[in-house]
Each structure stands twice: as structure tokens, then as C-alpha cells.
Amino acid sequence: MSDVSDWWRTSIIEMEPGKISFRGYPVEELIGNVSFPQMIWLMTRGDLPDENQAALFQAALVAAVDHGPQAPSIAAARMAVTCGLPLNGAMASAVNFLDDVHGGAGEQAVELYHMIDAAGGPEHTAEILARWQEKRTKFIPGFGHRFHKPVDPRSPRLLGLVDEAAAKGVVSGRFAAIGRAIERTLAETKGKAVPMNIDGATAVIYAELGFPAPLARGLFCLSRSVGVISHAWEQMGQGGRNKGPTPPSYRWTYDGPPRVPGRIAPKDNQ
Amino acid sequence: MSDVSDWWRTSIIEMEPGKISFRGYPVEELIGNVSFPQMIWLMTRGDLPDENQAALFQAALVAAVDHGPQAPSIAAARMAVTCGLPLNGAMASAVNFLDDVHGGAGEQAVELYHMIDAAGGPEHTAEILARWQEKRTKFIPGFGHRFHKPVDPRSPRLLGLVDEAAAKGVVSGRFAAIGRAIERTLAETKGKAVPMNIDGATAVIYAELGFPAPLARGLFCLSRSVGVISHAWEQMGQGGRNKGPTPPSYRWTYDGPPRVPGRIAPKDNQ
Amino acid sequence: MSDVSDWWRTSIIEMEPGKISFRGYPVEELIGNVSFPQMIWLMTRGDLPDENQAALFQAALVAAVDHGPQAPSIAAARMAVTCGLPLNGAMASAVNFLDDVHGGAGEQAVELYHMIDAAGGPEHTAEILARWQEKRTKFIPGFGHRFHKPVDPRSPRLLGLVDEAAAKGVVSGRFAAIGRAIERTLAETKGKAVPMNIDGATAVIYAELGFPAPLARGLFCLSRSVGVISHAWEQMGQGGRNKGPTPPSYRWTYDGPPRVPGRIAPKDNQ
Amino acid sequence: MSDVSDWWRTSIIEMEPGKISFRGYPVEELIGNVSFPQMIWLMTRGDLPDENQAALFQAALVAAVDHGPQAPSIAAARMAVTCGLPLNGAMASAVNFLDDVHGGAGEQAVELYHMIDAAGGPEHTAEILARWQEKRTKFIPGFGHRFHKPVDPRSPRLLGLVDEAAAKGVVSGRFAAIGRAIERTLAETKGKAVPMNIDGATAVIYAELGFPAPLARGLFCLSRSVGVISHAWEQMGQGGRNKGPTPPSYRWTYDGPPRVPGRIAPKDNQ
Prior knowledge:
Four copies of one chain form a homotetramer.
Chain A: H1 2-7, E1 13-16, E2 19-22, E3 25-26, H2 27-30, H3 36-45, H4 51-63, H5 72-82, H6 87-96, H7 100-103, H8 105-119, H9 125-135, H10 154-167, H11 174-190, H12 198-208, H13 213-238
Antiparallel strand pairs in A: 1-2, 2-3
Helix pairs in contact in A: 4-10, 4-12, 4-13, 5-6, 5-13, 6-13, 8-9, 8-11, 8-12, 8-13, 10-12, 11-12
């Protein structure tokens, strides 16, 4: 019997009839006594953050909830409910979209910060950026925004909170320094501002608080799910059936071969 | 141009370059000043809850994060990462599972409470339960648990918090009364305890706070996603490739027709 | 050990090292000797269709592969790959959208045909349509098209193949008669043509061939997946990152409360 | 208006009211005259295969439909329907699992074959295998099977069909030669048989027929979806609610910190 139970072993949750504990804490003591962000931290990491850590953590969760219906994830959520999906299905569809390109920048930014940190800190920024572009991709994750120019309004606010936390000794501040070094280096290299965006700023917070890179993506998914549910629910109220991406009258441009009837010989005995 | 923009109209988010606001609140004022549960409330409903409302709300979010790897959603998340999916894909797969049976009980319980409330309150419980079973399903959503006997440890704790909130005038307490009336009625009818479970208890909170029924499902998805990400992340650490539901040595019982070779005539000219 | 194996019991596939059989047929005898549509039939139903049945079956599968990028499923597939998802993720996202409204009409049409058939056949059409609209929904599944007016080009072709098959004794033709009776009845009731669409026509075929209603949805998902993969793959070639539903310059119409800064009191010690 | 239509441009499908064509072929001429595999080929590639190409192609589609409920994808499909999901949701959940590890081997094998072909053919196998293991992963995609020893029954049958097609001039046979060279090289290197598995064998076919590597994954998803739907449908018949991975009596092994009550100070005013 133990091989079957062992197949699903976990250190997260312990259960017997009438008893549930998470990471060793009885559930009835967590309920009402820890905040939702503290619970997210406990579940993903195994320990409880203090109030200051939790406050900085939740600032990142608050910041990334939504970026409007032109984001593919939000559009997907809104279309999904008009296809008949309930909120779980709409949320699943939207979160699935938060892959490498749409939802991976935060994770990649934490990786990049860790690389710079491991190399010795901000003065190694240019060298690590070059290595990133050579080995990974030309996109520097977490910097630049095609829409919010010159500044993404969320980033300076989040960095300001990191500075406050660093001043209080809650975090070290060294990943904020790394983030700012990237911003400076990119501005010099490109000759124009390539400011830190929401992914770069939340990645600073996740790195400061000690979250490993892949969890940055998971936490972004949690955060963006709030917008997803809100938009899906609003769309349910607006109604619609099989909502497509554009009003039906627009259709799409066809650029394939011309319609030529009569090229297929009918089968004799199908 | 306006028909295209109108196709995606929303009252949730307003944006121009360098400016984002949610429900009329500038994002940089929300970050650092509202809690994550307050943000969830603002996004889904349009207004900000006070601290007491937010505290009760977050108790429900904390309570439902996980029920272990025998829950299909959690098992799915753990299997998913061993198939190569990143955390967004694991979360999408798991949340998709939170459909009518696995994740719909909270939504249905809110509906049931509203029906009893609309009928005049707790004294109409038996009558409405009978109607529910006739029109909807024999399962009374939110009550009974195949594992937690005699009591689901989360429910009395959550109801206690509702009572405290009612005593302070934060909520009316009438949905707690309805929930308890269902519990009493079921005990009388069945001759044994059918105690309120996590879905019934969180539904009391969501109903007390004025959330419409479908959002109860959405909020459960948000809450359970915390466990999903935690288990998926733990599984990434454990490793494994193509993790199946049981250790490979077990295989499955085959109960179909016997293997009979030689029944298909080879095609001549395929 | 047997309770674990029994938990996953199936009559579809039998396996031991070096041996695989489906429904009793050795896999190496199926490969190269049965067509893909025959295999789909065998797997879902347990027996092999003859060539005539398979030919009619595959006409339905061929007919429903795609309806262009304004269909939410196809749009989702195209957006998905620009978010970083590989083809499996794009296909999953798209197929998830084929729910009650977008992908359920075929299943519902088979149900409706069965109701009319059980009531005694075409002469009971008006009565059953009324009951459907009273008990289920005002939409008559499988009839009418907002775009293809006056005729969906796939339907008469598919019905013609059913007629040929009925003439040869492959099928009875009674569900084609029911489908045409619905078309006539709707034309009389509404005073205008409400022609059978692709879902109504494929449902005739699935009903004629004896597929239960829920499989009609599954088969539609299989068929539409062909278009899904094709569009996702084409989009990969076109490139793009985070493709939204409309060109970025359009944005959306905001119809919520005006942006009012300064309403949130900063927290003292968060 | 054209920028909106251009945003969704495609060369796959052309539509106007009452007219649909795919790759230039009117839909009503395709229905009943081309097989489902031919349609899959036309949609993904733009041209119609002849009967011999289509026959080889469909052998690959037939071969990969299912590998039993211990495959995570199939287990997911079966669990999904017990959570309340319809067949589209079950299929979406399962196909999502067919990612790099579970569904990517065919795609990777095509890539590997192309690398060997580009290097000059079978005699460069050892060198390219070494490069693959250095640059990509230690797993050689498409070879070895933890269950089917010594031989995967599908592979020799599929290779036999490739040989027949090569003898008729339908394909060149050079990717079959490459596949066999890999098998020989691995046997020599490892000192034991590491036979070609289903992914390696279907990859030979897809490479012979000219499908680009990523489509090998998409085609595997299509093929495996047949098993997915079959198992989901069978599970619907078996019933069950919230089917977990093991019988409920097994639970899981907990290996985390011990349960210690009393460590969280209740909040004063939450």
C-alpha cells in the first residue's frame, strides 16, 4: 500500500478525518489569522512571512491584475464565456495563455537578476545583458513597453515600496539596484529610455523576497487571474454568443490561392 | 473605428500611455495601499470593501486553497509539470477541472441560500431543499463530506468568523442562519449528521458579503489556484517524467473483449 | 493491488510488454489496414464500421474542420501561439472553447432528433420543437446561420450523401427526414428560411450512424482541431508576440466611472 | 477597415455568405470526395496528397491514438469528466498535457532526423547524437520505452509500411534509414537494445512525407485525441464524482513538518 501513497507524497498538506494542516499549521488556526498573501507565501514556500514581507509581496500581486482586453489572456476570458464556459473554464483558458511570451517575462527577469547578482552585482550588468542576448533571446525581459511611454506607472511605485522596505531592513535592496542598473545600461546602449515594466518591477520584489524564478510566473498567473475573472464576469453580464475578436462585419483578409471549382474527381464508390 | 473599440468595451480598466486606472482608481494609488483581497473585490465588483469586509472575505480565500493530491485538480497540476508544462499550463489544467462537480458546489450553495432567503428565510428550508432535489439534483451543495467526519474543520471556524462579523454589524448573519437551518434539516431528514463543508461555509461568507453566485465559483478557483501552484512547484522539485496516476507497476484492469488476431483483411493497395 | 488497477479499468485498451490491442484488435493489424475514421469509430464505439459507414462518417469529419478566424476557437488558437504556447497548448485552448454555445449545437441537435424520433417521427416536429424551447432554450440547435444566407453550403452536400447512403441501405434515412421536417416547420413558423447549418447536418449523420449525442460534440472537437492546428501553425509562420484581438491602435471603449485620484488614504504601516 | 481585417489574414479559408473554400477548394467538393486524412493534409499544408501518401500518413494517425489510462493525458481526460466537464473540456485538459515531455518526442525526433540528414545522412548519426545530447537533452527522442521491451509493436509495422511506400517511390526512404541508424548506434553505444518507439516511428513517416517538425506534435495531438475522447466517454458511462488518481482509501504520504498547533497569535481586530 505504501508505494501507492508514496507516489503522491507531499510536504504541503496533511489530512485525517476532521483534521487538515498546511505545512504543519492547523487550517482552523490559519483561517482568520493569516492574510491571503501570507497564505500564498506559506503554501508555496513553507514558512509564514511577517507583516512587512507580506505587505511588499501583496503590492506585487495587486499591481499585475489586469492590462485590459487587448491582452490575449483577457480577450480569451471574455470570448470563452460567450462560448458557454463557466468561470473556471474562462480562467483556465486565459491562464493557459500566460506562457513564455505573455506570462514568462517576470520569471525570466528574476533569472536575469540572479545572473547579474551571481556575477557580482550591478557593475556586471552590461556583460550579463550581452550574454543573455547571445544565449537566450534578444528581448531583455522586464524592460520596455510598447504602450506605456515614457513610463509604466506601476514600476516607480513598486520600486518606491522596495526602497521603503530596504530602508526598514525588510529586504536588501540589491535586486532593485540591479533593476535600475539594467534600466541605465539599456538607456545608454540604445540611446533612448527602455524603462522597467510591470514584469521587471514585480520581478525585483519577488527576487528581493527570495522567490525562485519559476514561482514568479505562478504568482503572475494568480494575480492576472483576478482581472480574468472580473472581465469574464463582466462579459457574462453583457451577453453575446460566440464573440469573435472583431465585430462580425469585418471578417478577415484572405491571401491564399483563388477559389477554383472542379478540380477534385468525385469518388466512384464512397 | 468606434465599433471595433466598442466591441471590447469594459468598465473595469481605463488606459492611456503612462496611465492605468481600475474602476476609476489610479493603479499607483492602489499599489501599496489596498490589500490583495480588497483588490479582488474592487475588480470583480467595482467598489472597495472596508477592512472588516475584507477580513471576512479573505478568511474564505484562505480556507479553500488545497485539499491534497487526491483532488483531481491537484493531481492534474502535479502530473502536468511532469509532462513539460510550466506553471501557467499546470494551473490552467487544474482550474479547468473545477467545473460543476469539483468546483461548482460553492456557486450552487449560494444559489440555494438565495432561494431560501427569497422564500422568506430559514423556516422555508425543508420546502426549498425538496424543490432543489426535484428540479436540480439530489446532491445538496455544500453539505456532507465523504472524508471529514463528523466535522469539516474549516466550517465551524468560518461560521464563527461570520458570527463575529454579524455581531459587529459587518454582515447581517442571515445566510449563516440559513446554512445552519439546512444542516439541522438534513440531520432530521437523514437521521444522521450531514455537516456543512468548505463549499457551504465559504458560500455563507460570499452570500453575506453580497457576491453573486457565479463569482463564488470564480473565487474558489482563485483560492484553489494557490494549492495548485504549490503542488505543481513541489512536483517540479521532485522531478519525474510523464507521472501517471499510479506507480507504473500497477497498470489497469482490462475488461473488454479478448484479443483476437487475424480478423482484419489486409488492404490490397493501400 | 487489484483495487488500484480496478480504479482505472477500461474496455478500450489492453497492454502487456510488446503487445497492445484496442477493443480486442492487435495494434499492428489495425495500422495500415483500417482508415483513421474507422479507427475513431472503433475506439469510441467498440466495433469496426464497414467502408460505406466509414465514408459517410468521414464526410462529417471533413465538413466541420474550420470556419475562419472570427470563430472564437480559431482566434484563440492563433493568439495562443503568439503567447508562447506550442501546438498542444494552442489546440487545448481552442478546444476548451467548444463548449455548449460554440461546440454544443451538434450534440443538442442529436438529442432533439432523438426526441422527435422517440415521439414517433417527423409529424411530431412542431410539438417537440415547442417543448424544446420551453424546457431547454429558445435556440433550435443546428438551424439558422447568421452568416451563411440563404444556405450553408455544407448542409445540402452532407444531406445528399445521407440520401445516397440511405438508398444503398447503409442508413435508414429517418434522421434526414426529421432534419428536413424541422427546416420546414421553422420556415412555416417564422415565415422565413431558417436553413439547416453544419451542426444540424453533421448531427443527422451522427444520428443516422448511431452515435450517442455527447459523442457528436467530441467528434466536432476532433474535426475542428484540424482547423485549429492549421491556423496555429500558419500564425507561427506569420510571427507576432501577444497578438490581441484587434490591432493595438484600436484599444477599447471604457464605460466605467471616471478616474478620480486621491481617494485612498495611504496606510501608515503596511 | 482593412487594418482590422488584415490583422486576421489567412491563406487557409475564404468565405462569403453561402460560400466556403479551403486552400482554394470549395467545401462542397471536398466533402464526400477527400478522406479525413487528406483533409488534414490539405488544411495544414495547402495541397492535396495522393492516395499513397494519404495511406502512409493515416497509418501514423491510427498508430498513436492511445496508450492507456496510466498516460497522464488519458488519466486527465477520465478525471475531468467526473469533475463535470463535457467532452470538449476533457479533450482540452488532456491535449494540454501533450507538452514537451509527453507529446514533444515526435517533434524532436523529426528535428533530430533533419539534423542527421542535413549533416549528410546515416553515417553522421553518432556525431549528431552526441551533439544533441550536448546541446539539447540526454534523452534521444523517439527511442527506448520503459514498458514495451524488447520491441514496441507499432514501430516495425510502421517502418514496414514506409519500406513498402519507398519501394513504390511514394517516399525516399532516407528517414527510415536514419531512424534505423540511430537504433543501431544506440545499441552499440549502450550495449543493449534501445528500440525505436511510436514517436520515433511516426516521426519517420512525418519526415518522409515532408511535414515540418512542429506539425508532428500537432498531428500527435490529433491522433491521441481519439483515445482521449474514447476514454472520457467510457468514464462518463462508468460514472463517478471527482475521481482522484487512486482509490480514496490510499491517501498520500505526508513528509512535511509535524502538525504543531498554537503557533499563530490570533489577530485582535481582523
